[in-house]
Amino acid sequence: MSITLLVTLVAKPESIAEIARTLEEVKSYLPKVDGCESVRICRGLDDPALFTLIESWSSRAKHETYQRGVAEAGGWGHFTRHLVGDAVSVYYADF
Predict the structure, then answer these.
(1) Containing structural domain, residue 39
(2) pLDDT < 50 positions in the chain
């Protein structure tokens, strides 16, 4: 069963351009990851530092496997230092 993952993050004001550049790269490579069906990235109209990723995965397990691989490779430290706080991730299933 496919799942939807929403990831919301807020860039530091001085890092908005860096976050936007990195998310452009994510749009290119993430759909090539095993289990990722699609990714959309939205940006707040009223707050340009607010970004939301809307990801579709074939299963939660596929996403969690991907996340473990990222963590084992050193994680997202280079990215998260540009954020105001922790990204908020929530898994959803169709209702």
Answers:
(1) 3-92
(2) none
